[in-house]
């Protein structure tokens, strides 16, 4: 369970830092071209990180199932990856909606 908590926090931190450093700073730019560029950069970052995280979760799950775990706790790290990458997307979605309504 400690591994799952650490995985969750790492995924959450990476997603938040990408959101804050790429998207928020770019959306504060005065011109639309800079905003589109920031949105594109953030999308590439988010999809890339999501793909790496999901691939790692699948590899972990395959390896864990092969070892025939007796406890259902083996699913905690992959679920932590899903939640750690998915929850920050809610923040991003609300930010994009606010920006589009301005």
> What is the overall shape?
elongated
Uncertain ranges: none
The Rg value, from CA coordinates, equals 17 Å
Count of strand segments: 0
SS content category:
mainly alpha
Fraction of helical residues: over 70%
The ordered string of helix (H) and strand (E) elements is: HHH
Q: Give the averaged pLDDT, no decimals.
A: 91
- Our measurement of the CA-to-CA distance between the termini, rounded to an integer number of angstroms, reads 43 Å
Largest sheet: none
Estimate what percentage of residues fall within beta strands.
under 5%
Number of helices: 3
Descriptive overview:
The protein is mainly alpha-helical and 102 residues long. It is built from 3 helices and no strands. The chain has helices at 2-27, 32-66, 76-101.
What secondary-structure arrangement, pairings included, does this model have?
Blueprint: H1 2-27, H2 32-66, H3 76-101
Task: Give me a quick take on this structure.
The chain has 102 residues and is mainly alpha-helical. 85% of the residues lie in helices and 0% in strands.
Question: Can you give keywords for this protein?
Answer:
mainly alpha; 102 residues; elongated; single chain
């Amino acid at each position: 369970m400690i591994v799952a908590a650490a995985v969750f926090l790492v995924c959450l931190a990476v997603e938040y830092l990408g959101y804050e450093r790429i998207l928020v700073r770019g959306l504060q730019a005065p011109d639309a071209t800079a905003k589109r560029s920031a949105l594109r950069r953030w999308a590439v970052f988010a999809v890339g990180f999501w793909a790496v995280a999901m691939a790692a979760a699948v590899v972990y799950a395959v390896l864990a199932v092969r070892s025939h775990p007796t406890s259902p706790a083996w699913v905690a790290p992959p679920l932590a990856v899903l939640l750690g990458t998915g929850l920050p997307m809610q923040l991003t979605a609300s930010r994009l909606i606010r920006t589009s309504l301005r």
